[in-house]
Amino acid sequence: MDAQIFDAVGVGAGPFNLSVAALLHPLKDVRHLFLEKQSQFCWHAGMLLDNTTVQNSFLKDLVSFADPTSAFSFLAFLHQHKRLYQYVNAGFQRTTRREFNQYLQWAARSLPAVQWGQEVRKVKPHACGFEVFTDTGAYIARNLIVGTGPRPSVPVMAMPLLGEQVFHSSDYLFKRQALAGCRVAVIGGGQSGAEIVLDLLGQSVPPSEIVWVSSRTHLAPLDESHFANELYTPAYVEYF
C-alpha cells in the first residue's frame, strides 16, 4: 500500500505539538497528522500535586496568543464545561495544575488529527520531504514537526539504581505512598525538589527524615517579573 502524503506530520503530541495541531485544525487545505506513542494525554502526571498552580496566565494556553478566536482556548474549555462564570467569580490568580491538565486532555481528545498509541520508529529522507514509520504504517510528510519533549535528567551513577527506591521526580506521585515513615533524600534544589519536600512534609504519615541536597548555595525564587516575561514575547525575539 502506498504511504499517505501529508503537508505536515508531527512526532509527539505534548503541549507544543498539541498547540500546532489546534492551530492547524481549522485550515482544511493543510493535511496534517500527529503521532503519539502514549495511549492518552496526561501532563506531568507524576507531579499533579494538590494546590500546585501553573505559573503563567491562563491566556498562555495552546492557542490564544496566535488565534484568540480558536475553539481550543482555555476559555472555550471552561465555557463548554459550564465553568466559565464560576472560574471568573472565584478570582483565581493562577490556574491549578490539575485543571490545566484537564484542559489539555480535553483539547487532545477533540483533535481528530492526533493519533494515540502510534510510536514513530523511524524517519528517513524522501523525495517529497520525509517518510515516517510506525508499527502500523508509513506516512509521507512534506514538513516534519518534532515535539518529543524533554527526557528526565538522571545522573549517570544513579541510572543502574532506578526502581522503587531511586526514581525521578516525574514519577513522584506513583511512588509517594511507599515513602511514609522512611528516610528520604531529595536531590535537586529547583522547583520540583521544593514542591516534593513541601508535599512530603504535609503527608499524614511523613517520612521519618528528609534530606534535601542541592548543588546551589541558596534557594532561588522564581523570576516572574514583567521584565523576565518580556523574554517570551514576539517583539523580544524579533529584536534579538
TrEMBL record:
Query: What is a single Pfam family found in this protein's UniProt entry?
Result: Lys_Orn_oxgnase
What family does the database annotate? Answer: Belongs to the lysine N(6)-hydroxylase/L-ornithine N(5)-oxygenase family.
Q: Which domain of life is it from?
A: Bacteria
Q: Could you tell me which InterPro entries the record lists for this protein? A: FAD/NAD-bd_sf, Lys/Orn_oxygenase
Keyword annotations: FAD, Flavoprotein, Monooxygenase, NADP, Oxidoreductase
Name of the featured protein = L-lysine 6-monooxygenase
Could you tell me which SUPFAM superfamilies the record lists for this protein? FAD/NAD(P)-binding domain (SSF51905)
Cofactor dependence is on: FAD
Q: Which residues form the signal peptide?
A: none
What's one GO MF term for it?
Answer: monooxygenase activity
The record ties this protein, via Gene3D superfamilies, to:
FAD/NAD(P)-binding domain
Q: Where are the transmembrane segments?
A: none
Q: Which pathway, per its entry?
A: Siderophore biosynthesis
